[in-house]
């Protein structure tokens, strides 16, 4: 039977003499939020690149819903249902907020298509002649785009006609997440979603991430994040990486209060939870 989930089995990535990812096994199931944390150089970014197909493991395997993906290019992996955001925002600068999110809804069509491609003649005819199938689909896409933009409160919806380049840094990051959400991925990989955000913006993003499993109950969320207070709030499970290896895998409180984890983060074992919280959020 097909095993549902994103599954890494003994994944290794060597760069010359440096083993950036060392025998990492993990699984993310539909409906689950998994956070991956670790100090600088732990291998988090390399892991993201491997899962999303930007880089290939030196050994080991990665499967998505039973299908090997570790030799597939990123766009194929995206069409199989893995959406991702980047550490720095990657939006189309001249496109409006609205059109950017509509592009996301279009990605969903591609991943639903059997071959991953739409019939160009039918599509062109639909658009030029405004055929019923095309109008119906367009209306559904517009409704989906509006729903996703409204998830971000008044941050994006009132700015929907603005080009992405005119947005603040935080709004560009929100837009990137909105676009990938609009593609309705089965699994969503968020690479430091609050990087560069101030405490208010981080708080809003935390609330949104808390809401996502309620809004999209089947989505599997994999979040790479430095802010451990956010991780404590959103994650069902936490994997702590250190020097490429899985140091601990547990519930947030157990994982983040584990003495080895505290030591890996701050260089010495902590003396009490209160003190560790000051460092570990
Ligand atoms: N392309 C590369 N060539 C050589 N070494 C690399 C390469 N990419 C990563 N590394 C090394 O692999 C190790 C893990 O790096 P990685 O960027 O994955 O860690 P990280 O946990 O994402 O760190 P940070 O939190 O600082 O982003 C580091 O020692 C890094 O120097």
From TrEMBL:
Source organism, top-level taxon: Bacteria
Cross-referenced Pfam families: ABC_tran
UniProt cross-references to Gene3D superfamilies, sorted A to Z: P-loop containing nucleotide triphosphate hydrolases (3.40.50.300)
Entry-linked InterPro entries: AAA+_ATPase (IPR003593), ABC_AA/LPS_Transport (IPR051120), ABC_transporter-like_ATP-bd (IPR003439), P-loop_NTPase (IPR027417)
Entry keyword set: ATP-binding, Cell membrane, Membrane, Nucleotide-binding, Transport
GO molecular function terms listed in the Swiss-Prot or TrEMBL record: ATP binding; ATP hydrolysis activity
Annotated SMART domains: AAA
Keyword Acetylation appears in the UniProt entry: no
GO CC terms of this entry: plasma membrane
Bilayer-crossing regions: none
Residue ranges occupied by any ABC transporter domain in the UniProt entry: 6-268
Record protein name field: Branched-chain amino acid transport ATP-binding protein LivG (TC 3.A.1.4.1)
Organism: Orrella dioscoreae
């Amino acid at each position: 039977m097909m095993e549902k989930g994103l599954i890494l089995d003994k994944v290794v990535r060597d760069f010359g003499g440096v083993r950036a990812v060392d025998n990492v096994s993990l699984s993310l199931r539909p409906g689950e939020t998994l956070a991956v944390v670790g100090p600088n150089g732990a291998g988090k970014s390399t892991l993201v690149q491997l899962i999303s197909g930007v880089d290939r493991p030196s050994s080991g395997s990665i499967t998505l819903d039973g299908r090997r993906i570790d030799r597939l290019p990123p766009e194929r992996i995206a069409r199989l249902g893995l959406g991702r955001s980047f550490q720095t925002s990657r939006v189309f600068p001249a496109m409006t907020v609205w059109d950017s999110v509509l592009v996301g809804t279009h990605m969903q069509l591609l991943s639903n298509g059997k071959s991953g491609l739409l019939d160009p003649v039918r599509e062109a005819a639909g658009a030029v002649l405004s055929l019923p199938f095309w109008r119906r689909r367009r209306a559904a896409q517009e409704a989906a785009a509006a729903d996703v933009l409204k998830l971000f409160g008044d941050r994006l919806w009132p700015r929907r006609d603005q080009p992405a380049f005119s947005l603040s840094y935080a709004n560009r990051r929100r837009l990137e997440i909105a676009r990938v959400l609009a593609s309705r991925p089965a699994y969503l990989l968020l690479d430091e979603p609050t990087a560069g955000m101030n405490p208010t913006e981080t708080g809003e993003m935390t609330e949104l991430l808390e809401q996502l499993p309620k809004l999209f109950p089947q989505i599997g969320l994999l979040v790479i994040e430095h802010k451990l207070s956010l991780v404590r709030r959103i994650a069902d499970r936490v994997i702590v990486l250190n020097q490429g290896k899985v140091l601990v895998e547990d519930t947030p409180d157990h994982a983040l209060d584990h003495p080895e984890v505290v030591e890996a983060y701050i260089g010495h074992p902590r003396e009490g939870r209160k003190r560790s919280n000051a460092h570990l959020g």
